[in-house]
Structures are given as structure tokens and as C-alpha cells.
Inverse folding.
């Protein structure tokens, strides 16, 4: 395992808690590790969906701010567990789910592959546009590069994101300036009444799905921090990195919707005026995709180990990359906006219930303790089965509220396309599992 800031050795440490003597670093590192992965064309493209849905600039931006803030709060809270446990998020979740955490880990592993596809798609497109090579070959290069970073692990990811934060801020600042100075930015809503309200709620959910998708990774990137690291600092830097990046980059997407909706890479080059600036922008987009997906590969490898698959973490990171290739080719082969939105929403529908269950368990388990060793915690079988039951019940109840090209529930249809599934998922899980734990506490 890495022993200090700048230790670039390959991390072979798996899901076992990091011993107190091997902790290092400060909370400020969390700003860049959470900022850089969000500055990419996936987030820009998500911003364009606000205009595609008919909200226009200001309503679209407001919806994205609301969704981003709610999702970032959940990730920031879970990030504070890293220094207190020394463990990644799914091993921490074992305290609530017990042996059934393997089911959740499989779902998270599949989700990490889906996110590889959503992000790698635009990195491959940018590289193909830049070098004039076939899309599939560009995707292979992007996936191979991110796989290398993911294999090296925790410290290399932190260092790469620190460097990429500076590069990405500079590039996207120029991109935003070029956009504002040369293209129409403010667009008006094309919907009204109940249809406009439904689209507004749907866009909140889309933004929420982006931010909260990191919740099952949260403590993966704070687990090496010393036990005495300020919880407020961990929360604040995590929230700042996520929220600032998401809001700024999605705002660019809303403003550039007319140019970027169909031809993202070509649109970027056009906005930058072609030439050297256009080429640099495409290169940075490809690099940003690598930096973001390295975290998906890393956390996906930890998920696979949590399942109990006996494979070294670097090897499992490579497996995630290989499967992601097929998903990217599928996304690229059809109606991109429709497929993108469908996968984006569906891949994270389970996370609000996950957050509710682990947070409730943590409240009971950590009360009065500054540190918790998840490897030493016991989970009664009944508690574990109730956690898993609440998890699936919440998902089932949320299905009628879903609105994607994969599932359009009757409630979402009645509400003019509004997708309330994330909120229903969280509330049902909290009610079922929280009610069970409350009754058990009263009996004890």
C-alpha cells in the first residue's frame, strides 16, 4: 500500500482496512480527486439534455443545481467514513448488509462498467476526432490508458486528479469563454404547464443521478486519511469538489446545447475555433475521460473483491475495462441521447436505497465512537437479510416512478414524465429498514 504522498508504487492492498500507522495525507486532497473526474464531456452532454427536454437555460440550470446539491450531500457524508474506518465504501457497507453485501457489490461492479461506458464514449470520440482514427481504436486507447491508472491505485489516482484539475480548469475556462463570445447561450423553454413541470423534475433527477452515483465509492478515496482528520474538512472538500465541478460543467452543456447535442467532439472543435485550441481541447477531453474512468476501474475492482472473487485488485481493474468496451460501442451505434439518458438513470436507481440503509446502520453502530473497524463488526443474519429485503423492496416500489427509455412507469407517465424514482427509492428503504432497526432497538 502507498505510505506517503507521491508514492507511485502499484497498490496491491485490497479491501482490508488501512492500519492507523499507514495513514497519510490531508483532507484538501479530496477537492481535486472529486473535482477533476466531473470535468468531462459526459457531464457537458448531460447539461445539454436540459435543452433537449425543453427547459431552456435558466430552468435547466436551476434543476441541475438542485439535483447536484442533493446528490453531493450524500457522497460527502459517506466520504467522512474513510478516516474513521480505513475501509472502502462497500466493505463499510458489509456492516449493514453482512454476507448479503455480495449482491450489492455485484450491482456496483456492473454500475462501474456502465459508467466506464458513459464517460469513455466521449473520450474515445474526442481522440478519434483529434487523430482521425477509427472510433473503436480510439476507445481501445482511452480504456487502456485509464486501466493503467486504475491498476496503480489510490495514490496515483489522487496525483493524476490534482494535475488534471489544473489542466481541466484552464481548458474549460477557455471553452466557456469561446462559447459565450461566439454562440447564442440563453434559450427559452419550449414546454409549458404540466409538461414543463414534469421535465423540470426529470432534469433534477438526471443531475441527482450523476452526483449520487459516486456514493458507493465515497470512502474509497478517503480511507488512507489519518483517523484524526477533521470530519467537517472531509465533508467540505468532497462537497466542494463535486458540486462546483458539476454545476460549472453542466452549465456549459446547457449553454452549448445547440452545438453539442448531436456531434459533441466536432462541436467542441467548432466552438474552440479549430486549429491548435481545438486540438488541445480534444486532447484534454480524452485525458479527462481517462482520469474519471480510472476511478470507476479502481472502485469496480474493490467491488469485485467484496463479492469474494479471488483475484488481485489490479487484475480486476483490467476486467472492468474490457467489458466496458462493448457497452461503449453499443451506445455509439444508435440514438445517443436516448440511450445515454436511459443508461444514466437506470444505472444508479439502486443507490438512494443503499445510502439510506448504510446511513441508518452507521447511526446505530458508530454512536459514541470516533473510529469503527468494519472487519471486527458483527452483523446478525436477520439484520443482513432485512437490509437486503429493504434494498429490493425499495427498488420494486420505485419502478412505477421511473422514466427512462428502458422503463417508463405509469406514475411517471401520469406526472408528464417526472421521474421521482430516486426519492421514492430512498424514502421506502429508510422506512422499511429504519422501522426495523427502531423496533429492534426498542426490544433491546
Amino acid at each position: 500500500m502507498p505510505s506517503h504522498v507521491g508514492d507511485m508504487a502499484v497498490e496491491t492492498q485490497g479491501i482490508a482496512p488501512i492500519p492507523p500507522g499507514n495513514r497519510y495525507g490531508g483532507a484538501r486532497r479530496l477537492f481535486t480527486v472529486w473535482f477533476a473526474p466531473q470535468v468531462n464531456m459526459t457531464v457537458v452532454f448531460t447539461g445539454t439534455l436540459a435543452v433537449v427536454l425543453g427547459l431552456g437555460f435558466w430552468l435547466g440550470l436551476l434543476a441541475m443545481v438542485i439535483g447536484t446539491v442533493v446528490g453531493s450531500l450524500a457522497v460527502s457524508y459517506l466520504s467522512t467514513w474513510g478516516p474513521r474506518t480505513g475501509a472502502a465504501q462497500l466493505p463499510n457497507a458489509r456492516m449493514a448488509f453482512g454476507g448479503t453485501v455480495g449482491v450489492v457489490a455485484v450491482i456496483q461492479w456492473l454500475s462501474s462498467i456502465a459508467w466506464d461506458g458513459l464517460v469513455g464514449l466521449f473520450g474515445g470520440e474526442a481522440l478519434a476526432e483529434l487523430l482521425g482514427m477509427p472510433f473503436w481504436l480510439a476507445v481501445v486507447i482511452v480504456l487502456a490508458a485509464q486501466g493503467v491508472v486504475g491498476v496503480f491505485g489510490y495514490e496515483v489516482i489522487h496525483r493524476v486528479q490534482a494535475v488534471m484539475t489544473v489542466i481541466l480548469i484552464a481548458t474549460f475556462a477557455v471553452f466557456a469563454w469561446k462559447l459565450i463570445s461566439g454562440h447564442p447561450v440563453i434559450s427559452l423553454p419550449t414546454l409549458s404547464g404540466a409538461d414543463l413541470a414534469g421535465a423540470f423534475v426529470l432534469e433534477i433527477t438526471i443531475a441527482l443521478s450523476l452526483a449520487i452515483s459516486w456514493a458507493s465509492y465515497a470512502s474509497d478515496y478517503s480511507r488512507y486519511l489519518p483517523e484524526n482528520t477533521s470530519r467537517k474538512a472531509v465533508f467540505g472538500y468532497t462537497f466542494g469538489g463535486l458540486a462546483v465541478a458539476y454545476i460549472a460543467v453542466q452549465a456549459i452543456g446547457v449553454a452549448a446545447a445547440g452545438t453539442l447535442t448531436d456531434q459533441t467532439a466536432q462541436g467542441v472543435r467548432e466552438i474552440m475555433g479549430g486549429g491548435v485550441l481545438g486540438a488541445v481541447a480534444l486532447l484534454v477531453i480524452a485525458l479527462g475521460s481517462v482520469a474519471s474512468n480510472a476511478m470507476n476501474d479502481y472502485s469496480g475492482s474493490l467491488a469485485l473483491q467484496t463479492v469474494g472473487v479471488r483475484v488481485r485488485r489490479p487484475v480486476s481493474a483490467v476486467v472492468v475495462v474490457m467489458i466496458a468496451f462493448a457497452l461503449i460501442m453499443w451506445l455509439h451505434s444508435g440514438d445517443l441521447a436516448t440511450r445515454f439518458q436511459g443508461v444514466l438513470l437506470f444505472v444508479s436507481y439502486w443507490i438512494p436505497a443503499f445510502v439510506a440503509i448504510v446511513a441508518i446502520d452507521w447511526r446505530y453502530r458508530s454512536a459514541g465512537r470516533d473510529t469503527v473497524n468494519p472487519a471486527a463488526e458483527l452483523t446478525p443474519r436477520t439484520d443482513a437479510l432485512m437490509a437486503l429485503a429493504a434494498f429490493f423492496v425499495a427498488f420494486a416500489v420505485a419502478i412505477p416512478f421511473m422514466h427512462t427509455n428502458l422503463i417508463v412507469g405509469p406514475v411517471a407517465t401520469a406526472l408528464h414524465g417526472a421521474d421521482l424514482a430516486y426519492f421514492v427509492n430512498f424514502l421506502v428503504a429508510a422506512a422499511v429498514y429504519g422501522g426495523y432497526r427502531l423496533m429492534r432497538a426498542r426490544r433491546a
Summary: The domain at 29-443 is CATH 1.10.4160.10 (Hydantoin permease).
